[in-house]
Amino acid sequence: MLVSAAVVFSSLLSCAVAGPHARLKSPKNWAKKTALMEVLAAASPPSNSTTFSPVAVAPKANIFISLTDDEAASVISFLHNQTELNLTAAADAGAWDNAIEVVDLVQPNKTDALEYLDNGGAVPDRFAVARIAFGATDEPYLQDFIVGPLPISNSSTYASLDWATTSGSAKIRNHNADEDLLTQWNLDVTATVADIILDLLNGTATGSDDDDFDIWGETLLPQGLFFKSDITGRDSSKWQLQGWLYGDVFYSTTEEFRQAWSSPDFVKYDLNLPSSWIGSDQTGDFFPGDNIAPPIAVQPNGQRFSVDEEQKYVEWMDFSFYITFTRDTGLRLFDIKYKGDRIIYELGLQEAIAHYAGLDPVQSATSYMDTFYGFGPYAFELVPGFDCPTYSHFLNATFHAAEVSTTHRNNICLFESDPGYLMQRHSSSNYLALTKNIVFTLRSVSTVGNYDYSFDYVFALDGSIETIVRASGYIQSAFYAKNNDYGYQVHDALSGSMHDHALNWKVDMDILGTENTFVKHKIVPVQVKYPWSNNTRSTMQLQRERVENEDDAKLYWPRNGADMFLVENSDQPNKYGEPRGYKIAPSRGGAGMHLTIQNSSVLLKSQGFATHGLYITKQKDTEVRASHANNDYDPGHPLIDFDAFFDSESLNQTDIVLWLNLGMHHVPHTGDLPNTVFTTAQSAFIISPHNYLLNDASRATRQMVRIDYNSSGVQLVKEFGGKMPSGMVNLTAIQPNFNNYEGDIATRKFPYDPLHPYNDTESIV
Amino acid sequence: MLVSAAVVFSSLLSCAVAGPHARLKSPKNWAKKTALMEVLAAASPPSNSTTFSPVAVAPKANIFISLTDDEAASVISFLHNQTELNLTAAADAGAWDNAIEVVDLVQPNKTDALEYLDNGGAVPDRFAVARIAFGATDEPYLQDFIVGPLPISNSSTYASLDWATTSGSAKIRNHNADEDLLTQWNLDVTATVADIILDLLNGTATGSDDDDFDIWGETLLPQGLFFKSDITGRDSSKWQLQGWLYGDVFYSTTEEFRQAWSSPDFVKYDLNLPSSWIGSDQTGDFFPGDNIAPPIAVQPNGQRFSVDEEQKYVEWMDFSFYITFTRDTGLRLFDIKYKGDRIIYELGLQEAIAHYAGLDPVQSATSYMDTFYGFGPYAFELVPGFDCPTYSHFLNATFHAAEVSTTHRNNICLFESDPGYLMQRHSSSNYLALTKNIVFTLRSVSTVGNYDYSFDYVFALDGSIETIVRASGYIQSAFYAKNNDYGYQVHDALSGSMHDHALNWKVDMDILGTENTFVKHKIVPVQVKYPWSNNTRSTMQLQRERVENEDDAKLYWPRNGADMFLVENSDQPNKYGEPRGYKIAPSRGGAGMHLTIQNSSVLLKSQGFATHGLYITKQKDTEVRASHANNDYDPGHPLIDFDAFFDSESLNQTDIVLWLNLGMHHVPHTGDLPNTVFTTAQSAFIISPHNYLLNDASRATRQMVRIDYNSSGVQLVKEFGGKMPSGMVNLTAIQPNFNNYEGDIATRKFPYDPLHPYNDTESIV
Questions:
Q1: Do B695 and A594 touch (CB under 8 A)?
Q2: Can you give the residue ranges of the DUF1965 domain (chains A, B) (predicted)?
Q3: Is the pLDDT of residue B10 over 90?
């Protein structure tokens, strides 16, 4: 196969002085223990409840739970015994070896899972997926295998996981398996222009430890010098330099570049120099009063939710759910029940695209699909008092990569909080009624390279669930020269490279069973002649429209919220004839949720899930995920092409799945330096009961008060057992000790060209 | 003038048993004192700051501050001395008298205000507006007068406030000045069908104290029986009954109605009966653990913002602003400065429309413009621990109506809080940096009849300001019969009447002076051929477009957030050449922000500000408000027709004003019973610095931590003076005492037909 078409710019020159994007040099220590939370647990006051237990017992085994260390080890051992795979231990493997990259759970088929959860069926067999990189060949590739059933026994087998793809094969070509050769190639190429680099950039990039520059893409300090290589094949002696780019002028040979540089009218651009501006420490005049500790939330009387730590099962008020954690997508929720009925079978991230654009080939060709790196490996320990309230309940999570089982301690937090506004209020001539809005949040944060993605699942007393993503961390930026059509100049020689974020969520809703229908309830202007009026009136109506086929199931969110999107069970009307359902709506943000570009030259066949706001498909056990972590190796020939899910199937009262994007168009401005802030980089959707119950479910809480009064004053204060917090809280005792932070070593993603992606597993595990 | 065209249904029959919408019977006691907050003040721990003062001194007098009681009294006295006005004391005035309804401040001209604030000019003269109802005439009307300068002296005069209108006259016709006659008319009409009412509704509506029903529109208990009257003129003997409506069948005479009712095939509908479902008290099974007090926010070390109580001036971090409060629109902010520079001259609500639709004439003809009732009179005392944190700083506010000066105590709260997520975070291989997101909120709540509108202005450390409105309280509903195209059936005989909320805000931004330009920065898909590639690529670009004329200044929010809307000072580029500006964007909600109907038969010429998402006009001292509280008297001939602001004026680097809508399309479902909840009924916009400073302003806070680590563990915890809260907090001592609530008497709005509105001041002032 000729892959030169897919090779644009395999490498590029940019600065990597010590700064926010220093490359990983430290050993991995994912599983290092910490005592941070033990202090908090000891200081936490005892609950004043005599009946409530913060310990839950899962009613069913968590069949979605991550592979145990033992399971992972047995799978790896089993595979090493399959001699035809010719595996090398991951720790010893080089570019010409075959090695296991990732082992994870194959999520049970929904059919089997429901049989177990609802109908007393057997626990579904557990299977693992093993992602193996095959380097011992002229045409390196990756392949997923299904292994099981677990535990490994004589009846366990392995097979290519073809059925989970739309391509029909779990194999994907790796066009850039030779990182070591590429590093040397890049140094060899730049050595031929060392004098030009010294002149233009006032530094060196020779591969030496005392280099000023690195040959690299993603950073706050790009310098605007690029070269193009054809690195087709595994023999780097056949690779070819195809040209140089500087100041938007392309030179097809080094000689041409050198000649231009030598000429007196060669335009040299300012350098993009580091200094304190790239750091995120406090800077600027202190605010008045800011030395005083700000308000803080406390939980004086104990935890009001229950956790089954072993089964990763949680109960809060009328909600319950199971948690799992995967290498590719991090935290996921399963079997979310509300008042005893399942409302969501599966809720979790599918993929996160960050699609850049720019005048230069790096920005233009960058569109991260972050499951390539994985959200699991980068979901580090959270800091109480900052990332989550000091009183939060923390959970650990484990993933298995490079034949290492890694446990992040305290990387998921669960907490109740008061979001600062009420659930309900009303005042009348004789009473005032007020209900607190206490919400329950499940949170994890993944730092995938430059960006910190914070994920919240927020449950509320009215039966709603909000899914929120926020982004902070460093922007990826561009050299400033002539990049004005693609971003703002944000520093002396820096452009805030414009990009779209699109993060796709799978929301497999089941409203009173799996047979559901997606309906649009449209609010439309109409002209009507009524019997009681002589004139035609300009008014509006509610019009109901069903989405009955996958042909009509790629939706944009309507302008001005003119349509309500619902999942209903049309066969389960309430007593008034309205089908019971849940509404799905955007709730935060407004800066865009899907990609601007609908036919990206970078993402090719791998973008189908990100071109619209919302998609509906018929649930199939073979259509589990909208994307695949390995799609990024060859986006033109992906393992999962989401568009292939749409094959005209009926969506009428059947098991439907929503695939929904959050995100934003991000054109970084000066306020993104040093870091983007969460306040203006957030996006969310909320699902909420819609004719689902017969009244507002929050009426069940005790956390309300009614004050009856007349002109003589208050006549009655009616409470319902939800008294205000009382007693003493020792704030000093609940201060977290930041010195106990585990210090998970953060790794980062490397530059890559999605038209010619390469195996980055060394750094990302 | 013939007004019969404007008369559709002047009255209607519905239930008003004791319930959530009981009509006001109690005497007014707006200014009753309360001791609620004194308890809290005594229990609040002392600040640990030795330098910070919670008391501010306004740098300039608050020239926007509400009229003092003395000023209002002197204006009223002055007007009573103008014999040609023929005024009767409000307390004694009947339908055939002239009486002062409202006295308020005439906001100073911006020209004069800036001269004072910025250039050492004189304090602008203060003027009052007096809204007078003229009933002593066959053609009753209302008229606004400007009175001043204040204090009243020999040089004070009064004049019709024509220049503040677009109609050219401050007079507006009152087509329904005779409420007493109308009440009697309605009883007389219904008396003719008392037997039918007894049969259909199983009750009476005779005006007696033991009636089962009231003749009224807005309630949870409509019964679906309507009659149509022509009430043109002030002589009720000439009024005419024009027909009856029941079950969507119109009978043009009582005889016809009676005949139909007598026939065996007359369809009788179910009654809409009250019971516990209309109450908002706790109901349903208690949640497990809900007897435990939930988390609560505390402010252990004192207040970190400063207030000049007398001048209603506030400073928080790098922000400062002045507050005022008006009868029509409640809380308003002026002269919002950020880092010493004004960014907003004026920020406040203009109008709140709730536009209904329905099969019946009441729903179809209802479109509230709530400044008619006023947000000031209904902005009652807030409850600490529910409406606002217990540690909030409360302010009072005063309005002047019906010749009474009324002070709401503690009806505005100011507080800092932690919204539950960080401002900034980033982790790398060697450090983790975290910054708290402490926000400052200014809040008031107005219960205008059935709905409780909560208004927040939220200031953040990154320089952003979010304006949020949330709605709770009772829905207005419709009788269920055949109303399916206009709402869901939500109870036995009840339809949740569909409606649009559109709340218009004036946002008079001034970025580094008044000469500003509105620009759209559009993110657009493009095809580009780059010099470094042989192929045309499908990518995206940033395109800048100026809105230079009022002809182009009615905007919709773009689908998928594809355009960024900015106010910039094009003549004030930052050092990198990017104009300094602020971005305006939706931030919460997603269920719609402007009206569905663009040419409402109800609102007629009074809806111009609600048909789009956002408008830009050139600032003029004569175009101060988008709407007028009296527009509702005659929407076809409004005092202020917002569309008239658009007269092709240049918006290029001039003083521009934004008029922006928040809101939602609301199709109430069962979850809106008994009350709509704030969680899913909220809408917001945020303004945030955009290339305004050279970096993220939140870097100035001390509330951050950096944890440096390597593979050996934490090496350094770097703090910046923002330590975690410490010491003991006595939660019992800070519990509010709800028995001290003032119990402002809530009044409510009456049914009205905007095609024939009537004077409702008896109940609303």
A1: no
A2: 218-285
A3: no
Token pair belonging to A89: 């231990």
Angle at alpha carbon of residue B577, lines to B576 and B582, rounded to 5°: 95
Sequence ranges of the domains in chain A: 13-60+304-699+735-764, 69-173
Strand segments (E) across A185-236? 213-214, 222-230
B314 touches chain A (CB under 8 A): no
Q: How far is B94 from chain A (nearest CA, A)?
A: 24
**A131: closest CA of chain B, how far (Å):** 26
Q: Do B426 and A20 touch (CB under 8 A)?
A: yes
Q: Please indicate if any CB of chain B lies within 8 Å of the CB of A599.
A: yes
Calpha distance B420→A378 (Å, rounded)? 22
Least-confidence region, from A592-596, A649-653, A692-696, B743-747:
B743-747
pLDDT at B247: 95
The arithmetic mean of pLDDT across residues A46-66, rounded, is: 83
pLDDT of residue B326: 97
Tokens of B133: 């109802």
| Residue pointed to by tokens 């406090």 | A282
Give the nearest chain A residue to B434 (CA atoms).
A386
**Chain A with chain B: Cβ pairs closer than 8 A:** 740
Q: Which of residues 231-250 of A touch B (CB under 8 A)?
A: 243, 245, 248-250
B440 pLDDT tier (thresholds 50, 70, 90): very high
Phi, psi of B178 (to 5 degrees): -110, 70
Please enumerate in sequence order all residues whose Cβ is within 8 A of that of A606, keeping only pairs 6 or more positions apart, or say none.
A369, A627, A631, A632, A635, A636, A638, A641
With helix as H, strand as E and coil as C, how does B194-239 read? HHHHHHHHCCCCCCCCCCCEECCCCCCCEEEEEEEEECCCCCHHHC
Which residue among B370, B387, B500, B744 is the active-site one?
A: B370
Per residue in A663-719, pLDDT tens? Answer: 999 999 999 999 999 999 999 999 999 999 999 999 999 999 999 988 788 999 999
Contact A591, B561 (CB under 8 A): yes
Chain A, residues 316-345, CB within 8 A of chain B, namely: 317-318
**Are B540 and A599 in contact (CB < 8 Å)?**
no
> pLDDT category, A35, cuts 50, 70, 90?
very low
Which of B296, B540, B723 shows the shortest C-beta gap to A357? Answer: B540
Angle between helical axes of A194-201 and A179-191 (0-180°, round to 10): 80
Q: Evaluate whether B447 touches B411 at the Cβ level (below 8 Å).
A: no
> Do residue B429 and residue A23 have CB atoms under 8 angstroms apart?
yes
pLDDT tens, residue by residue, A60-93: 999 999 999 899 999 999 999 999 999 999 989 9
CATH topology of domain A13-60+304-699+735-764: Beta-galactosidase; Chain A, domain 5 (2.70.98)
- CA nearest to A117, candidates A341, A332, A316: A341
pLDDT digits (tens, 9 = 90+) for A710-757: 878 899 999 999 888 889 999 999 899 998 886 553 332 222 222 333
**Contact call for B670 and A432, based on CB within 8 A:** no
Residue A330 β-bridge partners:
A326
> Are the C-beta atoms of B346 and B706 separated by less than 8 Å?
no
Nearest by CB: A673 against B472, B695, B743:
B695
Q: Which CATH number fits domain A69-173: 3.40.710.10, 3.10.450.40, 2.60.120.10, 3.40.440.10?
A: 3.10.450.40
More confident of the two residues A12 and B181: B181
* CATH numeric code, B11-60+294-515+553-699+735-764: 2.70.98.20
Given this chain, do its domains B11-60+294-515+553-699+735-764 and B71-173 carry the same CATH topology? no
Q: Give the ipTM.
A: 0.92
pLDDT (tens digit per residue) in A431-471: 999 999 999 999 999 999 999 999 999 999 999 999 999 99
- Annotated active-site positions of A, please? 370, 451
Which amino acid is present at B568?
Answer: E
